[in-house]
């Protein structure tokens, strides 16, 4: 029997749906690049500001939303291509210390956030969602852990909007604070990658500081993101043990299979592409002109991605977020960022 060919008529409408939004992102990116020539602000931050200003004034037309929503994909494409500019020797040299720092900071963040959530009398599942988002990868962690602990939709909405508020604030506050403290590029990048919440804002803040800071911020953040699968498994176990009335637990084989599946599902697959390009570039596979073209491509992908990221910044999140989740996250960020900065300055 001949293999079934894909239904092109089903694919084309979806592509047609994406094209207006993609064109919209490209226009925003070009506007941001043009404005950046006249203001003392990096083009990536200008792209976020342009997208945010548009989304919070006239709004994004409905027909553009599906295409604009692909900005996460362009961020991942940019990160993968950026691998050609990351030194394998530098990664190997910093690898063990960076991994220890990531595991330590993630564990410390979870502990601080969970304790503060109890102190502020947050509902247990809401506190866990806030802790998950703060410790690993922002909204992605909130959504992943929500399914594992059977959180209410209201709790997911509260945790998500709280994370998004701090994503917007830290995107601009971190580079300013780094300049005020006079942090070295690598120090700032690793610090931002260890403590900021979501991948997009981390990358934008890092590259707003410098090229080197952006690379290290992305590497540190990707290392954190790899822990998402383990975090989901850990919360699943904790909440399963806390629940009552189910005495017939899964078999050992089923538990092992579920554990491995959760780890793989939580693993950001594009990291493999990033590491592959790091290795290929370090092996001298690419010529200098090819490296220059790839660098242009990842800069363009980032600019498009951050224009889309800006459209996701909604001022209405401030109204929808409760005071206590905001307080928990603010105190968590303050404590963790201070401790992490000391660790990074000492270790790197």
TrEMBL record:
Membrane-spanning ranges: 21-53, 73-91, 98-117, 129-149, 156-176, 188-210, 222-240, 267-286, 298-315, 327-347
InterPro entries: UPF0324_pro
Assigned GO CC terms: plasma membrane
Main location: membrane
UniProt KW Transmembrane helix keyword: yes
Membrane topology of this protein: Multi-pass membrane protein
Compartments it resides in: Cell membrane
Sorted UniProt keywords: Cell membrane, Membrane, Transmembrane, Transmembrane helix
Tagged with keyword Transmembrane: yes
PANTHER family registered for this protein in UniProt: INNER MEMBRANE PROTEIN YEIH-RELATED, UPF0324 MEMBRANE PROTEIN FN0533
Protein's name in the database: YeiH family protein
UniProt source species: Halorussus gelatinilyticus
């Amino acid at each position: 029997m001949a293999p079934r060919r894909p239904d092109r008529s089903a694919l084309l409408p979806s592509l047609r749906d994406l094209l207006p939004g993609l064109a919209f992102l490209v226009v925003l990116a070009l506007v941001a690049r043009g404005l950046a020539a006249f203001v003392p602000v990096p083009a990536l931050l200008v792209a976020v500001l342009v997208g945010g200003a548009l989304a919070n004034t006239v709004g994004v037309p409905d027909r553009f939303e599906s295409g604009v929503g692909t900005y996460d994909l362009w961020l991942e494409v940019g990160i993968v291509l950026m691998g050609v500019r990351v030194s394998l020797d530098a990664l190997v040299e910093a690898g063990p210390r960076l991994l220890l720092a990531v595991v330590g900071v993630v564990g410390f963040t979870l502990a601080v956030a969970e304790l503060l959530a109890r102190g502020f009398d947050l509902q247990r599942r809401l506190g866990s969602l806030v802790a998950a988002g703060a410790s690993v990868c922002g909204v992605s962690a909130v959504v992943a852990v929500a399914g594992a602990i059977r959180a209410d939709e209201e709790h997911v909405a509260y945790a998500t909007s709280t994370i998004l508020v701090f994503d917007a604030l830290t995107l601009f506050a971190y580079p300013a604070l780094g300049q005020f403290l006079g942090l070295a590029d690598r120090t700032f990048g690793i610090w931002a990658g260890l403590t900021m919440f979501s991948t997009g804002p981390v990358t934008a803040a890092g590259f707003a500081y410098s090229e080197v800071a952006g690379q290290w911020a992305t590497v540190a953040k990707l290392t954190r993101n790899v822990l998402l699968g383990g975090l989901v498994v850990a919360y699943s176990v904790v909440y399963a043990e806390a629940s009552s009335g189910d005495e017939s637990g899964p078999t050992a084989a089923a538990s092992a299979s579920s554990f491995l599946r959760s780890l793989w599902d939580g693993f950001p697959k594009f990291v493999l592409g990033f590491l592959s390009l790091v290795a290929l570039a370090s092996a001298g596979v690419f010529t200098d002109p090819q490296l220059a073209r790839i660098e242009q491509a990842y800069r363009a992908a980032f600019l498009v991605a951050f224009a889309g990221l800006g459209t996701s910044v909604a001022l209405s999140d401030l109204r929808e977020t409760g005071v206590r989740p905001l307080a928990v996250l603010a105190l968590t960020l303050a404590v963790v960022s201070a401790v992490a900065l000391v660790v990074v300055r000492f270790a790197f």
